Write the structure tokens for this entry.
Amino acid sequence: MAQMKNKAVFYCQNCGFESTKWMGQCPGCREWNTFVEEVVKASSPKSTGRGAAMGSAAPAVLADIKIQEEARLSTQIGELDRVLGGGIVQGSLTLVGGDPGIGKSTLLLQTCWKLAEKGHKVLYISGEESQVQIKMRADRIGSFAEGMLLLCETNLGSIREVIRREMPKVVIIDSIQTMYNEEVSAAPGSVSQVRESTGVLLQLAKGMNISVFIVGHVTKEGTVAGPRVLEHMVDTVLYFEGDRHASYRILRGVKNRFGSTNEIGVFEMGQEGLTEVHNPSEYMLEGRPEGASGSVVACAMEGTRPLLLEIQALVCHSNFGIPRRQATGTDLNRVNLLMAVLEKRCGVQLSGCDAYVNIAGGMKVQEPAMDLAIVLAALSSFKNRGISPRLAAFGEVGLSGEVRSVSMASQRVAEACKLGFDTCILPAVCMKGLQGDGSMKLIGVRTIQDAVNALL
Ligand code: TYD
Ligand code: MG
């Protein structure tokens, strides 16, 4: 057979757009100067698809296919299990993304520790740190059982051999950007390398029923390098995020073929690695000022989990012609919109005021249910009058100043009740079916004016 020629392809290093010629601007993501030439061996089998991994070309009758309960392996870390949808699915490929230094390696090392303790064989492959470095980190976490194997290697060919030989139950690849496949001549971390390496790992996972976790670093734009290419190949995408200066970390499911994607897991980074935070609301409200103006507690939902957050607002006289608006942890456009609604519907003169809105603790929430609390916090700061620290608020605010209903009102109220709040201000339409017990006073409001009348 005639030898096929190697082919040079240009890839956008930002979004993975493929082109046969170099371009200054990427038509995919509109970034400039992101195209890099990578040589792809045309003769190498392009068998990174799922069908090839499973080795069958015969169709099956859908009605005859039996559903087995996916075999799940508990990681013994409740918060991780929750995000994964109940544990690690055998033969699944999971991508764990996040900024460098956020704690991805630590989280996965701890997972290995727990799995090894349960008697499972796990293989941790690092292309970033030496064995001694990993040992030092591991010593901070605890003493590891027999089943934990460590390999410092970046060549996928050797890695494949080791996995075939050892047959571990779970494999960790830290990180995909350091791995290289000899069949691809591009540099490690480039789009074609990352894609080919993930393809090889996908085959290993599906073919041998091994669960594989891949660590992927995030570029400054906030996406895993070679992102779209990677995200569609794997079964589950988790992002590990948080403020590097705060100690809490949030694990968020972005894609999950085996469970819900709107679950979060909350962890705290300490001296001995990560610990789970079972009650995030309590954790987020720690150190809250009592009775200060501009501080209101909002009930947000993260997946099926209610979360109480302190909204802080500072509204003060502007020294410039154009007032300054700033939002930390929430959407600035939403804040601007709420300021406009407040001015028009409640007659508060905010156009000459700077406004700063912050979600304390560094959480990032975009939910419209936070609107009412943001409006109340801004008004409280403007009038310089404190709102009861035992009050929680939620509700979406519309452009005519109406307070609209939000989902899962009863869970939100229950969470506030659990944490000792005594008043909850919520959309009137959500009051149906909710009755305040003795300890909780519920105030249903139809417009923001109603809320203002009730409180200030
Ligand atoms: P790491 O897991 O190496 O991050 P990533 O793999 O995402 O790049 O996390 C490193 C950070 O975590 C580092 O700044 C030190 C901190 N850390 C602790 O605070 N306590 C610990 O017990 C460990 C192991 C790490
Ligand atoms: Mg790391």
Summary: Residues 104-105, 128, 174 surround magnesium ion (ligand 2) (CB under 6 Å).
